[in-house]
Amino acid sequence: MLEPIKNRYDFVLFFDIKDGNPNGDPDAGNLPRVDPETGHGLVTDVCLKRKVRNYVQISNDNKDGYDIFIKEKAILNNLIDQAHEKEQVKSKDKGDKTEAARQIMCKTYYDVRTFGAVMSTGKNAGQVRGPVQLTFARSVDQIVPLEHSITRMAVATEAEAEKQQGDNRTMGRKFTVPYGLYRCHGFISAPFASQTGFNEDDLVLFWDALINMFEHDHSAARGQMATRKLIVFKHDSKLGNVPSHRLFEMVTAEAKKNPVRDFSDYEVVLPSQSDMPEGVTLDVKL
After folding, report:
1. Does 69 score more than 90 pLDDT?
2. 27 in a domain, yes or no?
3. 234, CA 20 to 30 Å: which among 77, 151, 187, 263?
4. What is the C-alpha to C-alpha distance for residues 186 and 12, in angstroms, rounded to an integer?
5. Helix, strand, or coil (residue 235)
6. How far apart are CA 69 and CA 281, in angstroms?
7. 49 lies in which domain range?
8. Per the structure, how many domains does the chain have?
9. Does the residue 252 lie in any domain?
10. 14: nearest Cα among 219, 204, 258, 226
């Protein structure tokens, strides 16, 4: 079994959307999420974690150690109860059962040992603080949410057809962003990795998921959504050598023209290895 990672990592993720809705807001009729004060677009960390989970699930086919805890139609208490039915948990004293179940959950589910989870419901498997954390993604520039009228040339029921006297057209709305380049920051903690067992193989899979997660998430609302840049800062030490904000400030993205309608309209400037602070290595994954 691989040992947990020994280094801290910070990273910057750039992804974009063209003529689509990257993350609809249910509180605003599914309009693209936006900062009302600045007009910048937002994509939640929960949305991005969902895409990572989906990629891990389809790329590993739920093989041992790579199942997903938070997945569609899952009944979480049943999964926690299943951990308590393992022999290595049942054999423990009552006071040790929660910790033993927590370890089983970390070993079984990739997203638990990566992002953490609250598992204190059901028979109780405690709480896990995951080593990988993401911020909300924010668009580099303001976005312009557009609203489109759409027509469906059919109805769902005979009652609707009778009401429309055979003119079976229904109207709807669709929301898009003409173009937006989004930036997300992430952090990976070695001390927390030692608590969940997040190892080097898990780390490689996580980078792979960030690069490819949109390739398996295409839909009518996200037909042109892609990861554009993944910039990783690896610290020589477990606790880190430089504050993360100093590293993030070394990465900039500026539009070369307006309005922006393509990634090629941006210039992303990265630091060179010679510019890196002592104890930090730059790795551009994409």
Report:
1. yes
2. yes
3. 263
4. 6
5. strand
6. 33
7. 9-59+131-284
8. 1
9. yes
10. 226
Output the CA torsion sign for 255, 261, 265, 269: positive
Both structure tokens of 259: 């309005």
Q: Is residue 113 part of a domain?
A: no
* Residue 219 counted as domain residue: yes
What does the block give as tokens for 280? 């930090």
Backbone angles phi, psi at 155, to 5 degrees: -125, 170
> The whole model's pTM is what?
0.92
- By the 8 A CB rule, do 284 and 231 touch? yes
Specify the pLDDT at position 165: 73
Q: Does the CA dihedral 36-38-40-43 come out positive or negative? A: negative
- Kindly compute the dihedral angle of the four CA atoms of residues 29, 223, 54, 252, in this order, to the nearest 10 degrees: -90
Q: Is residue 159 very low, low, confident or very high in pLDDT (cuts 50, 70, 90)?
A: confident
Using a 10 angstrom Cβ sphere, with 0-12 exposed, 13-18 middle and 19 or more buried, the burial of residue 110 is buried
85-118 pLDDT, tens per residue? 887 877 888 778 999 999 999 999 999 999 999 9
- The C-alpha atoms of residue 193 and residue 57 are separated, in whole angstroms, by 21
Q: Are residues 104 and 98 in contact, defined by beta-carbon separation less than 8 angstroms?
A: no
